[in-house]
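Please predict the structure of the following assembly.
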Amino acid sequence: MNKVQEYGKTQMKDELLEFRAGDTLSVDVRIREAGKERIQKFEGVVIQIRGTGADKTFTIRKVSQGIGVERIFPIHSPSILGMKKIKAGKVRRSKIFYLRKLRGKAARIAEKREN
Amino acid sequence: MAGILGKKLGMTRYFTEEGRSFPVTLVEVTSCVVTQIKTIDSDGYDAVQVGYFHKKESKINKPILGIFKKANVEAKLGLTEFKGQMTLMDGEEEKPVEVGSKLTIDQFQAGEKVRIRSKSKGKGFAGVVKRHHFKGGPASHGQGDKLRSRGSVGASSYPSRVIKGMKMAGRMGGENTTLRDVQILEIDSEKNLLVLKGPIPGAINSTVRIWK
């Protein structure tokens, strides 16, 4: 481990939820507006996980009122107060950008079943 | 004046408690020692000469080695000067530096803004779009080969020459670049680490001059 990675460790959270692309997550985000703090839930499909160490981020996509919304979160951000896996998706690739082109029923992801 | 030399280690991410995130550059500062103090009386100007990084004694030529021997410090990779006078905090007291004084990152404080100078990465022979941020030419409407060209370099029969300093293609990078107001986000005195906000010029392992 080099010194940059070592320093990165100090910025990282100790425990993280394990998830992969295709999973449906619900993320509790701390939002500060007009001097007040509140928690907003962002729920959608993980379409990408990239980076390593403190620089790791993931992208969540959801379709809100017919419009696709994507949000990128640094996985170790203190603004993320909680994460919950709602569904484990069965996909074959690590970046599921093809989901952007799909609408409605076609945009569903098969659920992974634990045998 | 406070100054020091360090080594760029690389970049990573930094989070504040409120959840803001910044890209940061890590600089390791090791073994900076004052080797000579120049004064107006003896040298015509005030400066503090500093040796930085470690180097094998057998790898240094004798005139340079003589400077380290005279100052009674271990052999160093290089020498540099900081103009003006320098003071160090000795407990509560502020004292002028002496030959042999070790310079550490304790000269700086987290949150402070400093200046940075380091040698940028060499870009080779670069065109005007990359080197001087020219716009280049239009891509279509019958323009054959003008996409990244520079346009005119001047008038015709008068002055019948290109004016000196005209921006053209050429060697880019590999030169000292100075940044002002670079914020120090964190200082780790134990590991001799400076955490600087944003990128700094140069490749990993290059020497970085930090002063304020």
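The two ends of chain B are 6 Å apart (CA to CA). The first strand of chain B starts at residue 3 and ends at 15.
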